[in-house]
Design goal:
Blueprint lengths: L2 H10 L5 E2 L2 E4 L4 E9 L11 H18 L4 E10 L4 H17 L3 E9 L4 E8 L18 E5 L4 H10 L6 H12 L7 H4 L4 E7 L3 H12 L2 E4 L7 H6 L2 H10 L5 E6 L3 H9 L4 E8 L4 E3 L21
Parallel strand pairs: 4-5, 9-12
Antiparallel strand pairs: 1-2, 2-3, 3-6, 4-6, 7-10, 7-11, 8-10, 9-11
Helix pairs in contact: 2-3, 4-5
Length: about 300
């Protein structure tokens, strides 16, 4: 049983405000997203620096707002921590504020309290966005192409290297650790509003779970292919079953999975922002996910009620 989904099902029942990765407020036409980081679940103080924790706290909500078609305007910050960590917490706040300023987001409040471990929560509120511009998970159309961004997989590989001592060559170690500790911030929502995109969600738990969710909510079949294009570097270096397991189960990538029809000029606009898009399939009539070249896929995705990933 996935406890997170059970809880979401309970609180979402007959609730018109809860909207996929974000809530949407009709009166103010704004998206709201909130995320929580917990010491020794999402980070620990032996490996993560203050700047890396602030970075992860920022990107969680930033990515959710973007995958729903909006851009953050305001932020709230809540912090609980032991008194002994006060100096460290001040560093987290400093780096979090630097990111807010860089992306033109205003901090408007929050709360602090004492606790035995560090708990951090960020809430982002978007600029006004008309409802028909909001991206959701249920509008995939037959004939849509399925897209995501390149280089999924490095996040989980970095986790495995740091916490499970998986051996990597130096270049892969550096790249994967960087993506896990400070995931790349992709700034794409303003461009997405110009494109023909029908459904979208943030890849936080895994590509596999995200595809299942989009397929389920849209009540369409997703035929998946071209997986080798997602991460050519890892495709060349890993065994085929290891590669597929890694890219399908890697969580906390903070990239979108989306459906629609992008033109060549759309793809070039994204590339000009150093965002490389890959077409990994097509939406068809039917239900569920079908892989062109894969069978017996195991779900080794991140689980918020376990302290780490399942084994690769």
């Amino acid at each position: 049983m996935n406890l997170e989904r059970e809880i979401l099902k309970k609180v979402s029942l007959n609730n018109s405000f809860i909207h996929d990765d974000c809530a949407y407020l009709n009166n103010s036409q704004q998206l709201i997203s909130t995320d929580t980081l917990v010491e020794n679940v999402h980070f620990n103080l032996k490996i993560f620096s203050a700047s890396q924790i602030a970075h992860r706290l920022f990107i969680c909500s930033f990515s959710d707002i973007q995958s729903s078609g909006g851009y953050p305007q305001y932020a709230l910050l809540n912090i609980s921590f032991p008194n002994k960590n006060f100096a460290f917490i001040k560093k987290i706040i400093h780096f979090f504020q630097l990111l807010l300023r860089k992306y033109n987001i205003q901090l408007i409040g929050g709360d602090t309290t004492s606790s035995n471990n560090i708990y951090l929560s960020s809430t982002f509120i978007s600029r006004p966005l008309v409802k028909n511009k909001v991206l959701n998970r249920k509008n995939a159309k037959i004939g849509d192409y399925i897209y995501t961004f390149k280089n999924i997989g490095f996040s989980k590989l970095g986790y495995l290297n740091l916490f499970k001592k998986t051996k990597l060559i130096k270049s892969l170690q550096n790249k994967s650790q960087k993506q896990f500790l400070s995931p790349k911030i992709q700034n794409y929502s303003l461009l997405f509003n110009q494109f023909k995109i029908n459904s979208c969600m943030d890849i936080s738990d895994s590509l596999f779970l995200s595809l299942k969710e989009l397929s389920k909510q849209s009540q369409k079949k997703f035929l998946i292919k071209n997986l080798k294009l997602i991460n050519p570097i890892l495709f060349e270096r890993l065994k085929l079953n290891e590669y597929h397991s890694l890219i399908l189960s890697s969580g906390e990538e903070f990239m979108p999975i989306f459906t629609g029809k992008l033109s060549k000029s759309n793809i070039e606009k994204l590339r000009s922002k150093k965002i490389n898009v890959v077409n990994i399939g097509i939406v068809q009539k039917g239900k569920g996910i079908s892989f062109e070249d894969l069978k017996n896929i195991k779900d080794n995705s991140f689980d918020h009620f376990k302290n780490n990933y399942s084994k690769l």
